[in-house]
Design a protein that fits this description.
The protein is an alpha/beta fold and 138 residues long. Helix content is 38%, strand content 20%. Strands 2-1-3-4-5 form a 5-stranded parallel sheet, with helices on both faces. Strand 3, helix 3 and strand 4 form a beta-alpha-beta unit. Helix 3 runs parallel beside helix 4. The longest helix is centred in the N-terminal third of the chain and has 12 residues.
Length: 138
């Protein structure tokens, strides 16, 4: 069972992904979280394998904020999902140690596949994006 914590500042998005993931036999949504300031304590409390976080909920220094979470919770695989998929943002997210970057408008099947691959220890890049794996901070 893959334990997933969902974090997004849009409750409709959270509830949709929660329902979709819970319908899969191998996912257990251990929590949903609407605000960035208390996300770290939710991670400690819920003990997810994967934290799927919306980059947009962290404001202007979003990648730095995610990097602090990665540093504080090395046993959790952080996955960013965002509508902001410019190469600089993607590269910066991988530079701080995320395991995946997923387009917010992806299909549910794509999301499930990416999360399963990440749970299996694979780093997941967006389609058409390349980054030298030796540069990753895993």
């Amino acid at each position: 069972m893959i334990r997933v914590l969902l974090a997004d500042d849009e409750s409709d998005v959270l509830n949709l992904w929660r329902r979709l993931l819970q319908a899969q036999a191998d996912f257990d949504v251990v929590g949903i979280h609407l605000d960035a300031p208390h996300l770290s304590s939710a991670i400690v409390e819920r003990l997810p394998d994967i934290a799927l976080v919306d980059l947009g909920m962290f404001g202007p220094n979003a990648v730095d904020a995610v990097g602090r979470l990665v540093d504080a919770h090395r046993d959790v695989r952080f996955v960013v999902y965002s509508g902001r998929s410019e190469p600089q943002t993607i590269a910066a997210a991988f530079d701080v140690g995320v395991w995946g970057f997923i387009d917010k408008l992806c299909t549910p099947a794509s999301m499930f596949e990416a999360l399963r691959r990440i749970a299996a220890g694979e780093v997941v890049f967006p389609p058409d994006f390349s980054l030298d794996r030796d540069d990753l901070r895993m």
